[in-house]
Structures are given as structure tokens and as C-alpha cells.
Give the backbone structure.
Amino acid sequence: QSTSGKEIKITADGVYVVSGEVASIAVSAPDDAKVQIVLNNAKIGNTSGPAIYIASGDKVFITLKDGTENTVSDASGYTYSADADADGAIFSRSDLTVNGNGKLTVNAKNKHGIVSKDDLVIASANVTVNAQNVALSGKDCIKINGATLVLTAGSDGMRSDNTEDENRGYIYIESGKIDITSGNDGIQAETAVKITSAEMNITAGGGSSGSLASSDESYKGIKATSDIIVNGGKVNINSKDDCIHSNNTICITKGDFTLSSGDDGIHADTDLAVSGGNVTITKATRDSKAAVYSFR
């Protein structure tokens, strides 16, 4: 089904192709419905609320048609929304996957860029997010596979923050190219972060030249409450606070790391294991041992 118009409302499963200028897309489908929204050179701009709002459905896919360029923007202040808690240019209460070989630019003028209150998956897609607050937010998890991401965020670049289930709240990055410029943490997970074979450039909190004095906010490159596991890839981090920080353990098996920190280069509260890879720390502010690895 091909749909183009001012406001699109989707209430049943199926495939919906959207092209041209559209004010908004709203999905309110049965709990077992699978909905695929194909963006084909679409420009979606809402002047009163979220650009794409997904209230219900089993799984929703936003597919970027090959070779297309698509833009999404929300209002700078929401004057109308069917959900008072909706706070993203793309906001979903269902599992959300962004895929395809096209391009998507999300301009989040209100708060967050892409938000899922369940799982957020980005596969293969080329996505740019400019957000006042968090660029990518997946409450239960964020999974990245082979995507190209450019994230500019007023707060965190990526955040998964489920505090109710110890098996959720994680971020898993399997390959891809990711550039993050964040006002606070580059990547922040309530539980674990796992990275495999990704190319990543992260600048957090303005970089290592900034001062941490009298600040309660966090400006880390990669932060996890539980474990951080890195297996390969190329990671460059310039952060106002620790470059890589875990409240539990960090395990690095291979990869190339260039780190510049306003505090510690790599900090694990419990255990740190580095069994391979190349780690270069160009700047850290504590004593020589803590400049490389910090334990407590």
C-alpha cells in the first residue's frame, strides 16, 4: 500500500510506503501486528508533536528504501500528542527496527531523537540524529548491526536505562561505523555494553580539555553499570570524564584504542582484563597507573 499525505494513521499490519512531504505518522495496531513503514524519499515534519508515533503493535519496522534520503523532525515544543509521555521525534512503545540501505536524518527539536520503550534495533541503515537530549534511547536494549551512525546529542549519544530487569538495559554493537558527539555520556547502559568489530569515534562532554570540578553530571565515553566487553574494532574516545568506565568489570580481547581523558583512560570498579589489542592513552589526569587502568 502506498501512502502520501498530510497525516498518516496506521491501524492494521501491513507494508506502507511513504514518500513526499508528510506531517506525521501514527501507528495504533493490534498487539500481534507487524507493521513495516518504507520511507521512499520522505520528508516528515510535525509542528505540534512527534513526527512518527507508535502507540501499539508487536513489531514495527522503519525501512529506508535503497538510495533514498529521508528526513524526520518534530516540534520544538509539543502542543498536541496522543501520549503525554512521548518525547522523541520518533517515539515507539513497541519493538522498533530501523533498517534498509537508504539514509535517514532525524532532527529532534524537542528532546530525544529515536526512542523505543522496548527494543531499539538499527541494522545496515545510514542514520544521522541531531537531538536536544538523547540521540538513541532503547529502554530494554539497543542493538546496532552494520549501521552507519552520526549522533549529535545534548545529553547522551546512546542510552538504555531499564532498571527493573537485570537482563535488560544493555547495548550491543556488532560492526558498523559510529560517530558520537555528546554533551554527556557517549554510550550509557544500565547493565552491559558489548562491542564487536565497530569503528567508533566519541567526543563526550566537550572532550578531555574540560574540567570536572563541581559537576555531578557524567561525561564518560562508554559507561556501564555492569560489564563492558570489547572484542575488536577501532575505538577513538575524547572525553571530559573516564573514556571507558564500568561499575563492575571490563574485558578487552582485541581492537585498537586511542583514548584521551579528563580523568581515567579505562576504569573498572572491580576487574579489568586486557588480553589483546593496542591501547594508547594520550591524556589522563590521575597518577601514571590510573592514567592507563583504574581499579577500586
Observations:
- The first strand starts at residue 2 and ends at 3.
- The two ends are 58 Å apart (CA to CA).
- The chain is about 0% helix and 60% strand.
